[in-house]
Write a structure and sequence with these properties.
The complex is a heterodimer of chains A (290) and B (273).
Chain A (H helix, E strand, L loop, with lengths): L5 E8 L14 E8 L4 E5 L6 H8 L7 E6 L2 E2 L7 H10 E4 L12 H11 L4 H14 L15 H13 L5 E5 L7 H18 L2 E5 L3 H4 L4 E6 L2 E6 L1 H6 L1 H6 L6 H11 L11 H15 L1
Parallel strand pairs in A: 3-8, 3-9, 6-7, 7-8
Antiparallel strand pairs in A: 1-2, 1-4, 4-5, 9-10
Helix pairs in contact in A: 3-4, 3-5, 4-5, 5-6
Chain B lengths: L14 H4 L2 H17 L3 H18 L3 H8 L3 H14 L5 E5 L2 E4 H26 L4 H12 L9 H31 L9 H32 L21 H20 L7
Helix pairs in contact in B: 2-6, 2-10, 3-6, 3-10, 5-6, 7-8, 8-9
The chains are: A alpha/beta (290), B mainly alpha (273).
């Protein structure tokens, strides 16, 4: 793990001046960070903190104003990048977006999943095998011949994930992929994401607004004004409740509860990022006090 | 959700459904040519018989096929009337004042109706009822691919068709949503004159266009992220190999054409000029 999968050095990005005066403030400002292979990183930040821009810079949909990005040991901001290099980068850096409807191309589920590998020129037998295997990975194999517009949001988003998986990426970036889903759909997609990370070892970068989802990650990066404000494990980051609140973010309800109980004089020791942990912690403390 | 019929595809498990779509496109063209070869009673009878055979092969219920004919009923009736009253011949059947009806006119009317009906049934059975729009798009891309040498963007057109088919249900759903939203704010789409109604559509069209452009932008990014770079070096999951069996229908249609010409030459019964 000495070589990080993604390494960013002094990255800055500003949009062109003409787009509604946004150009004066850079969206990303001298940002540096590293992401290990196989890790699960959540990226938090309020609107306009540069989260989505960062995602699009990682697979060269956008090119940075200045700074360097290395992916898998290769500098992707190098001017000598050929078209083939860009394709192989995008193959390795899958991306799933917010609106599932706007990223499905074909009218049949399996044709859509095949779209990525077809673009890469994979032989047809192998595409067939890949499509079946990734559809079962996301639990959608029985819907292979359905029309996407008849599926639920969570199902469509899992198809979108399957479509990216079919390219056999090393890393997948989820750009608020659960934001438009109902609670059930959100859970389906989160379960799928966690499985990919834990079982297939795919590096996951998840941009999100939901603190409960971020709490499931190995590491949280909080972006603010185009730079990293906080970086650490979920419990480390959520300890900084006042700082998070000052930049328009919240902490999970259970963490907030523990903080309030502590302020009220209860002696609670330990980390708490999930409801189960929270219940356990309170129970232990109550037993001790008795 | 309201279901939107894509064309008229009727899912079934029939020999016509299984036939290679490229062959079906060629068959359709040949079948249209055949229907224009007919000249006399026998050849038209054979043509009508072939249309019935096609319906049986495609296993599409007869009422669905007849429903497909409904939009052309007026045209059928109109051509029949024109032929009955305006065809001059030798065998006068009926005359009253300026109206003269000849036997030739009656024959011509029936022939034209059979021809139009078989055209509709033939193209319907060979293409729209038995082929999914996506298979049709792929078939057209394959058949037109020689045009790529002339720099005709065949792949791009096929891609546009595919995406259009994908987005039709989305946009129609969205139209309904916007209409409901505008109605909730007191918009009235169903009263007033033509101009007033057209004006009432503007508050629907503008948000619809804005959202369609946003979707297009999102989709373009998503396609780029999935390594789309045009048709070059692209493979397909569904590779269709033309089997020897697929040539049998081609032979049958050629045989049909040959028999039609033969029956024309035989010249039994009334013959059109």
């Amino acid at each position: 793990m000495s070589n990080p999968f993604i390494k960013i050095e002094g990255l800055s990005y500003r949009y062109d001046e003409d787009s509604s005066g946004m150009g004066k403030h850079p969206v990303l400002n001298d940002l540096s960070m590293e992401i290990e292979e196989g890790s699960f990183v959540a990226v938090l930040g309020h609107n306009g903190s540069g989260k989505s821009t960062l995602a699009k810079l990682l697979n060269m949909i956008l090119t940075p104003t200045s700074g360097k990005i290395f992916v898998d040991g290769k500098e992707i901001t190098d001017e000598a990048m050929t078209d083939e290099d860009v394709l192989s980068l995008r193959k390795n850096m899958g991306m799933v977006f917010q609106n599932p409807d706007n990223q499905l191309v074909a009218t049949i589920v399996e044709d859509d999943v095949a779209f990525g590998p077809e673009n890469l020129g994979i032989p047809s037998d192998e595409i067939r095998a890949r499509v079946n295997s990734v559809l079962s990975d996301v639990g959608m194999l029985e819907y292979a011949t359905h029309e996407p517009h008849r599926l639920s949001g969570g199902q469509k988003q899992r198809i979108a994930i399957a479509g990216v998986l079919a390219m056999l990426p090393k890393c997948i970036v989820f750009d608020e992929s659960t934001a438009m889903l109902d609670p059930i759909g959100r859970k389906e997609v989160m379960d799928a994401i966690l499985r990919l990370n834990r079982e297939k070892g795919i590096t996951v970068i998840m941009i999100t607004h939901y603190m409960e989802e971020a709490a499931l990650a190995d590491r949280i990066l909080v972006l603010h004004d185009g730079n990293v404000l906080l970086d650490g494990t979920p419990s480390e980051v959520f300890e900084q409740e006042p700082l998070l609140k000052s930049c328009g973010l919240n902490v999970p309800q259970c963490t907030s509860l523990i903080h309030q109980l502590r302020d009220a004089g209860m002696s609670l020791d330990g980390d708490c990022v999930s409801i189960e942990q929270c219940a356990e912690l309170i129970l232990q403390t109550l037993n001790k006090e008795r | 959700m309201k279901s939107i019929a894509f064309g008229q595809f009727y899912p079934a498990n029939s020999p016509l459904h299984k036939l290679d779509p490229r062959i079906k496109v060629i068959l359709t063209v040949l079948y249209i040519v055949c229907s224009f070869l007919c000249k006399n009673l026998l050849s038209f009878a054979l043509l009508a018989l072939s249309a019935i055979l096609l319906i049986l092969c495609g296993r599409v219920p007869i009422r669905i096929v007849l429903r497909g004919l409904r939009p052309v009923l007026i045209i059928l009736a109109f051509t029949a009337l024109l032929n009955i009253f305006w065809t001059k011949g030798e065998q006068l059947l009926f005359a009253w004042k300026f109206i003269e009806i000849y036997a030739e006119g009656l024959y011509a009317a029936v022939f034209m109706m059979v021809r139009i009906a078989t055209l509709i049934i033939g193209t319907g059975m060979l293409l729209t009822y038995t082929t999914t729009p996506i298979a049709l798009t792929d078939a057209l891309e394959d058949l037109l691919s020689p045009l790529k040498k002339l720099k005709v963007p065949v792949h791009e057109f096929a891609m546009m068709m595919t995406i259009a088919l994908r987005f039709i249900p989305l946009l129609s759903e969205e139209t309904e949503k916007i209409m409901t939203a505008q109605k909730a704010r007191g918009a009235d789409f169903s009263s007033g004159g033509l101009i007033q109604r057209a004006k009432a559509l503007i508050p629907i069209l503008i948000p619809l266009f804005v959202s369609a452009f946003n979707r297009a932008g999102d989709l373009a990014t998503a396609m780029e992220c999935r390594c789309y770079h045009g048709g070059e070096g692209r493979t397909r999951m569904h590779v269709r190999h033309v089997r020897l069996v697929d040539f049998i229908p081609l032979l049958l249609v050629l045989l049909l054409g040959a028999s039609l010409i033969f029956l024309n030459v035989l010249g039994i019964g009334f013959s059109m000029k």
